[in-house]
């Protein structure tokens, strides 16, 4: 068992998208898939082709991944139809991605009551659908829906479903605890029994968290012989969610003898990955999340803090920096110098580790993040802050006055319309530019006015496109904010070659916060175009 490989399968973009209140945009899905690929996930399930316009757009032009395989999800063929005559199945296996994961019934109760078909027909649906996906050149996987309930009800039939998928050519047969009610001992026993009965089948595990033990169940299944594990970032998913890969991955890498596709030097990216998802969903990060929560390595006054200061290992099961976190003493923070230097290296900023300006920069970043700035998700704003504090010039322009007016009225046709008009004054060197523009909403209007003023001085800004815009109200009850109610704006930019970057603005006024984020976005582009500042 020592050194055996565990394959990581992320279903955030599909199963995680079923979370109440979660609605991924096209830009969200591309950014999340790219981040998962970068950290070393083996399979990224992008969604269900044919299920909704967002998934259709995503699979029409899926992101080019360097390490992971993109997976399309869907159902086996329907009863009474051939695989060639099932549009739903064909939409999935025709998607231009290397792998397909098909779900089917493995609980005899569902086959009899929900599908109202014979056991033989259900087995044919499984094997034929998997074979059809494989014939299209896809790596075919089968999700055994409600497997643990099915095994408890009728072990022979549940095993027949596993064998049918294997006979059809499935590379993985994934045992699903779909209602999340199975406990770790049962998971271990059942997966062990399946492995013994089907030794040639490559088994996976997919656990929901309704009993609060999805990560424990996943680890139990791996011990019993599963070699693929499915889950989501931050445990997203319907009802109580899925196994949380942000907890599961470091547990596998740091606490077991198994190997994954994520090397230890990539583990520090876990916290940024977790925060990135939360920011895209406008959710407050869970401060008490294992490994990556802000309180995961926080020591309060008293016995624990005293012992931790003498030897942090006393109350820390892993070193916080191994997962991108840092130790906090709630009276006085200890800064993460190594994390800061690692981020500098990503941006190509060279700085002496002994440079005294680092301490000031770390203090400023901590202060701003306490106020509500989100530099994990707005890497461009962080880079500009660092460059400014290290003395690099970036004063390409200054933003003077701006004004935004919204008019709600009925037009000549009697239709209700809302129009936004903005004016902006931009100073570039000794020149002052004043422009006005009409836009689709106040942010688009002020962006257009700013761009008109800037493009004459900096033509490379003409190709910059806003692809995502998120607003979040922070208040005194928010773990990320320590002041009164303020507005945080996150903006994502893109240029035709596919380069994207994100900035953040913070203010009590939503337009002011937007203007700050827009300004950073333009300056970051000029810095990376090596345009000289006036």
UniProtKB/TrEMBL annotation:
Matching InterPro entries: 2-isopropylmalate_synth_dimer, AIPM/Hcit_synth_CS, Aldolase_TIM, Citramal_synthase, LeuA/HCS_post-cat, LeuA_allosteric_dom_sf, PYR_CT
Keyword Amino-acid biosynthesis: yes
Pathway it works in: Amino-acid biosynthesis; L-isoleucine biosynthesis; 2-oxobutanoate from pyruvate: step 1/3
Protein name: Citramalate synthase
One BP term from GO: isoleucine biosynthetic process
GO molecular function: (R)-citramalate synthase activity; 2-isopropylmalate synthase activity
Domain spans labelled Pyruvate carboxyltransferase: 6-268
Top class in the EC scheme: transferase
Organism: Puniceispirillum marinum (strain IMCC1322)
Entry EC number(s): 2.3.3.21
CDD domains: DRE_TIM_LeuA3 (cd07941)
UniProt entry keywords in alphabetical sequence: Acyltransferase, Amino-acid biosynthesis, Branched-chain amino acid biosynthesis, Isoleucine biosynthesis, Transferase
